[in-house]
């Protein structure tokens, strides 16, 4: 199973990208990779890995030291930076039949635009969608599809997102009949604007998803749902608000603990619990946003991701490939042609 790794574009690149990939390769011995980025930097990191000689036969390196930044207009970046690590990675993914997946921590806009143009979509999918994973209060996970790739959409596209996300949650995480909800301003079937009401009917009538109704944003982490479908604008706000609230809550708790001596003493007895809660709310433990609906697997890692977070992203791509996820999606979509 061969993957291409874009080694530039993240806050901790290329160190996190390379070392995170090596960690995933140790856990999955049938993964081989093509690292794309500054060849000198990549090889220096590889030489410092204690088991590089054992992994060497599964590694290729392609020199592409140019970076696409988040400030650049996606269309201009694609046109003018053809030798950047991201565009070269996408070119390899498109042209090399051995390569089935790409992992990148680079600029989101350029990644979506370039993948859509160069790789193409699964037949029956109008637009690809991002699907990040968050933890739930009962120890499970929930996916949000879409979380930023599409702002203006149709009811039919929300149905496509539900199909994409359902197959993904089943293929990558083993969830049987994922419970699908539609993000809305209330749980009643008649709530929301015309788009949401039309989508409710399509989702309810589909035999290919386990639709359980509307969901209010406050219930995202309740554990009642496995997948939430929404437009990219609402989904992005939902995910970032949830992540931001968790982060600020941790900061508030730490500040309050340090405000009084008796709180500090109590915190000593709860140190292990606080550490567990911090890990539970660490979004990097749950991987990146998978771009669903493209002909080959693409995983977008967090720009601030570390080695451990990148390793999870590589493992995500591995599970999707191993389950032949795109073939399953194509079979379902034939019904809707």
Q: Any overview of this molecule?
A:
The chain is α/β, with parallel strands linked by helices and 337 residues long. It has 2 domains: 1-125 and 293-324, Isopropylmalate Dehydrogenase (3-Layer(aba) Sandwich); 127-287, Isopropylmalate Dehydrogenase. Helix content is 46%, strand content 16%. The protein contains 13 helices and 12 strands. The protein has helices spanning 15-27, 39-47, 52-55, 74-80, 85-95, 108-118, 155-173, 194-205, 232-257, 261-269, 271-280, 307-322, 325-333; strands at residues 2-6, 32-37, 59-63, 99-104, 129-131, 133-135, 141-145, 179-183, 210-215, 227-229, 289-292, 297-300. The protein has a 7-stranded mixed sheet, sandwiched between helices. A 5-stranded mixed sheet has the order 6-7-10-8-9, with helices on both faces. Helix 1 (15-27) links the parallel strand 1 and strand 2 (32-37). The longest helix is centred in the C-terminal third of the chain and has 26 residues, at 232-257. It is globular. The model has no long low-confidence stretch (mean pLDDT 92).
Keywords:
single chain; Isopropylmalate Dehydrogenase; 337 residues; 5-stranded mixed sheet; 13 helices; 12 strands; alpha/beta
């Amino acid at each position: 199973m061969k993957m291409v790794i874009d080694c530039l574009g993240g806050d901790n690149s290329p160190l996190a990208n390379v070392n995170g990939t090596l960690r995933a390769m140790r856990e999955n011995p049938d993964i081989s990779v093509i690292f794309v980025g500054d060849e000198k930097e990549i090889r220096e990191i590889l030489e410092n890995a204690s088991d590089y000689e054992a992994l060497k036969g599964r590694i290729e390196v392609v020199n592409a030291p140019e970076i696409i930044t988040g400030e650049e207009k996606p269309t201009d970046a694609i046109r003018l930076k053809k030798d950047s690590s991201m565009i070269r990675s996408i070119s390899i993914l498109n042209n090399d039949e051995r390569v089935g997946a790409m992992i990148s921590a680079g600029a989101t806009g350029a990644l979506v635009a370039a993948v859509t143009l160069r790789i193409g979509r699964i037949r029956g999918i109008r637009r690809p969608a991002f699907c990040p994973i968050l933890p739930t209060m009962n120890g499970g996970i929930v996916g949000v599809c879409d979380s930023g790739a599409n702002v203006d959409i149709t009811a039919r596209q929300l149905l496509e997102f539900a199909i994409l996300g359902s197959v993904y949650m089943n293929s990558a995480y083993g969830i049987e009949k994922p419970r699908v909800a539609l993000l809305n301003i209330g749980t009643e079937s008649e709530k929301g604007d015309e788009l949401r009401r039309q989508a409710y009917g399509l989702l309810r009538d589909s035999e290919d998803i386990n639709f359980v109704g509307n969901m209010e944003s406050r219930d995202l982490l309740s554990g009642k749902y496995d997948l939430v479908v929404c437009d990219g604008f609402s989904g992005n706000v939902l995910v970032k608000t949830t992540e931001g609230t968790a982060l600020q809550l941790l900061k508030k708790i730490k500040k309050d603990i340090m405000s009084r001596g008796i709180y500090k003493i109590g915190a000593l007895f709860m140190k292990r619990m606080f550490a567990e809660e911090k890990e539970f709310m660490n979004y990097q433990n749950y991987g990146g946003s998978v771009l669903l609906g493209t002909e080959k697997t693409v995983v977008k890692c967090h720009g601030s991701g570390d080695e451990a977070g990148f390793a999870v992203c590589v493992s995500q791509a591995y599970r999707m490939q191993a389950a032949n996820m795109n073939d399953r999606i194509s079979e379902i979509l034939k019904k809707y042609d």
